[in-house]
Amino acid sequence: MEIDNQSFINIKNSSSKTFLVAGPCSVESEKQIMSIALNLASNIHLLRGGIWKPRTRPGTFEGIGAEGLKWIKNAGRAANMPVAVEVATPQHVEECLKIQIDVLWIGARTTVSPFSVQAIADALRGEDILVMVKNPISPDLALWMGALERLNLAGITKLVGIHRGFSSAQKGVLRNIPCWRIPLELKRLIPKIPIICDPSHICGNREKLSLIAQEAMDLLFDGLMIEVHEDPDNALSDVQQQITSDEFVQLVDK
Ligand code: PEP
Ligand code: MN
What is the pLDDT of residues 237-251, one digit of tens each? Predict the structure, then answer.
């Protein structure tokens, strides 16, 4: 697989060891994303924000929709950093490209579906954009590899893997169980691919975040993606796991 990791290195900037992505689970309002962006500005490399949310059950907040794209793009401009949005359909891709969202990511519930990934890859054919691919919800390396290969075959060479843990029937302290062997094996098979860890979706709570982030760093992951919200208890999604920008700065300073 041909991987071009130069733009990852450029966004990360060569002097920093760890690539840091942070931002809210969901973009909720223009004001919300702007204040998070400005508060995080000097501490991260890439601002994340969910616009269309793949909620497990209906009847919960499913994202602000396309209107939020310009909010996150403006927030990124104000804070002088690139922005990343999750895409799950060709329509999402089209809306993001129209407004020049800098980085796209594919969520765990989408990586499981070869049809969905192929449709996204087809929509991206000929584009020069960084795409981050979360592991599928099941501990299936081939499915994760397959998603990366589909994008690669469509001409996308700027790829990053994200380990966000795997679903389990056993409910314990973690929401999604990490299986470090799988991302490490991905790295062995595709040595040039940067792999980052998403402790927020692994933990599902705030308490274990720093422990999981530290574990990823000890295993030489290339970076972290962490959910940040200035009023986590009143967030419209993933209430239990989001932390404030101050808590984020403390966590990554450690
Ligand atoms: C998210 O990043 O907000 C998200 C929905 O994550 P995942 O696809 O890992 O569940
Ligand atoms: Mn989330």
Answer: 999 999 999 999 999
